[in-house]
Amino acid sequence: MKYSNFKFILAAIVAGSIIFSSCEKDNPTGKITLEVNTTSSSTVNLKGTKAANDLVFTSGTITIREVVFDGEVGATSVSRTIEQVADIDYATGTVTPEVVIEVPAGDYTDVNLGIELQDVNDDPTVVIEGTYTNSSEEVIPIRFEFNSGEVFEANAASVSIEPGADIVGKITFDAISWFGTVTSNELDNATQTDGVIVISGTSNTTIFDKVADKLDVDTQAVFE
Length: 224
What we know:
Blueprint: H1 2-26, E1 29-38, E2 43-45, E3 54-73, E4 76-89, E5 95-96, E6 100-104, E7 106-117, E8 126-133, E9 139-146, E10 151-161, E11 166-173, H2 175-178, H3 184-188, E12 192-193, E13 196-199, H4 205-214, E14 220-223
Parallel strand pairs: 1-11, 9-13
Antiparallel strand pairs: 1-6, 2-3, 3-4, 3-7, 3-8, 4-5, 7-10, 8-9, 11-14, 12-13
């Protein structure tokens, strides 16, 4: 009697394994690896003159806590959330540790890639550094600090994910664009802290408000 029960249980386990294996084959997946593109090598001239008023950002760190992928496959909505604290090196775009999202394979439309910033204390989670050449052609260090649980959202019209594929979801953080509404006159007259133009929630707040308004608006995403 016990032997018969054991055979029944064993047969059920085998059958369940076959069904599970079949489901895996019927629902293949692909992977999206998060990468970041920055404007660390770009310079913008705020006044159009040859030498003065150049603004460039070359280094910094962006700390994130969560990445969300949303998209539509036919009539099915797919959403994946990865909760993982990671640092983005603004100079290189490197994400440490690597963030990988596994999703069902398919042809996606209305794709959204969201990145939430870390927000646990008063330390800034976005620190971007560079230089500003003022109207007197003095090169002054500049630092932008941002501390909030802001969510960067970047959209793509469509993306195709093949079974077993490992594609790249690349999001652009463009600090040059964030400063797009800031004038050379504002930076020329900005308060300096120990010789540095600090743009933060407590320093040069008028400039900070302009930059903060552009943070989420100017992000873009592409899938490669």
